[in-house]
Amino acid sequence: MSENIKSANKSAEKIINWGEARGIDTCFERALKLKPCPIGSTGACCDNCHMGPCRLVGKNAEEEARGVCGATLATVASRNLLRMIAAGTAAHSDHARDMAFTLLAVAEGEAKDFRITDVRKLYRVAGYLDIEIEGRPVNDVARDVALKLLDDFSRHKGEINYVSRAPRKTQERWRKWGIVPRGVDREVVEALHRTNIGVDHDPDHILTHGLKTAIADGWAGSMISTDITDILFGTPKPIQAKASLGIFKEDEVNLIVHGHEPSLAEIIVDVVSEQEMIEYAKSKGAKGINLGGMCCTANEVLMRNGIPTAGGFTNQELGIMTGLVDAISVDVQCIMPSIVELSNKFHTKVITTSEKAMIPGAIHIEYDEHRAKEVAREIVKLAIDNFPNRKAEGSHITETSPLVAGFSHEYIEYMQGGSWRASFRPLNDAIMAGRIRGVVGLAGCDNPRVQATGIHTFIASELIKNDVLVVSTGCGSAACGIAGYLTPETALEIAGPGLSEVCEAIGIPPILHLGSCVDNSRILTIVSAMAAEGGLSEEIAGMPAVGIAPEWMSEKAVAIGCYFAASGVPVVFGGESPVGASEEVTRIMTEVWMDRFMGALHFEPDPEKMLSLALDYIDGARERLKLRKYEPGKFGGERVLMDMAARREIEKSAKPHMGIY
Length: 661
Ligand code: SF4
Ligand code: MSK
Fold this sequence. Notes:
By secondary structure, the chain is α/β, with parallel strands linked by helices. It has 26 helices and 15 strands. Strand 10 (438-442), helix 18 and strand 11 form a beta-alpha-beta unit. Helix 4 (73-107) packs antiparallel against helix 6, helix 6 runs antiparallel to helix 9 (203-233) and helix 8 (184-194) runs antiparallel to helix 9. The chain binds iron/sulfur cluster (SF4) and Broken Fe4S4 cluster. The site of Broken Fe4S4 cluster has 16 residues, from helix 12, helix 19 and helix 23.
């Protein structure tokens, strides 16, 4: 990777250079000008009280440095990490809470613009929650589902509902170490309480609560959000679309939906096809209305409606710099406030829509699910009215990449056997035979502090070359899509022989786009289903599976990494460790978590080392499971001999949980 290239995406790089030549600042220049604080970035700074901030630095900081209150470096670093996990969990889960309230409003007939699209998924979720469905009106079931899931946020005692969806052995590990969450809000509040001055000072104890909080994110907040979004808007299935900053059209009104929440965006998808709106756009000189997405709201409407994506986090300013965006409607999370100032240099209108998120200088049109269409029409009209104000100025891009997205876990199950024989058997068999070496969840943000999207695409291409099936989410998916890796044809050219054979047989790309950041919960469901299917590990721990977030930047990514680690998946993050100052905290996240949960959280800035760490974990898991030794192109290669006891173990583990995921 060339050092002076800021984005691996050629269109992005072209716009960055165009802006630089005109003195237009983006996150790329700001990242160069603003070096990270070397103390805070490694977790050695505490500002939890006003006796500080205390910087725990020096030669023997781990042993000798103390804050004014006497806190050690390990205490400070672990508290910092717990606060990141809590913030990430809060973000995903507050999004999920709003989804649950929307489902409740729909069930009670108060949100007339929505309907329950996927009744089958509603019944499946009702099944997880022991809610009766026989002979009951759909809306009654939906109300009970919404109320029961809302309990997961406010419960003080007991266990979150979806713990039962994890393999039994995974649950046992969690109970043994006391990390089954009670309720999302309780764990997040307790995280803030524990990290307050003078409360919890034991790094291991602090980080154990970090895992409990993270499980509340993955197995409650995020999973609830995924389920309800599927119920309301449909469970995704493969769909073709386009990706890149070239999706904007010169002769149409271009409107972007950006952020994370799908509800308003889904209604905007409907409204832009209304004849009245199209006629209105024509009356302003446009040929039509072109809707595009950005970040995870993009992933939501891409997965279900094929709306094209302009890319991930680092593309948001660049989209405006095309000069073609008439309006950008933002909800919550990962929205750079800089887009408002930047939009003043062009003609773009920035519209904030969440009651939780405003940006000075933006137009605020507040979303309310009770009058969703009215709000959506106001936003679309505003974009149309702004079309005649376009200036010639802008860095226009025309190239786009085709992609296939929409791989829900339900579809992955279906594609392996059709309606009647849907299962994870073929995937497990392919892993056992060595055709597929293992599975990697490639997630997380793109980041201007590295060559944006370049590490994602490097890791993704190397993994598939090595016969590793990649399931991707969030901005990592956008990076792969723009690079052209999300088509069966393009990616099969670079996939290894075993993976290529499997993908060709099923007709899928070797990188499966699973959705948005909250849809990392789909990966938990997939690995649980693989455990239930039998022949590999009977719990999530020990699977030849790894999580990688090569360019992460958001606290949400830390929460995701920790719920994977707690569930038994080793995780490799790119970049320097946010707690790297403390060897003790690093040891807990790697060795201690590996002993207890067979998961770990590593931080590794070197992409080659990230890759080899992941492959080592996969090969180590294969060896422990006594699977065929992976050798490229040799699927019937040397088989690791198994004794009778090992065989019996595998047979015993076959399908212990079928039908519950
Ligand atoms: Fe310093 Fe302790 Fe206050 Fe943190 S809590 S700022 S280490 S005095
Ligand atoms: S949007 S959290 S930059 S993946 Fe989900 Fe992308 Fe990271 Fe936001």
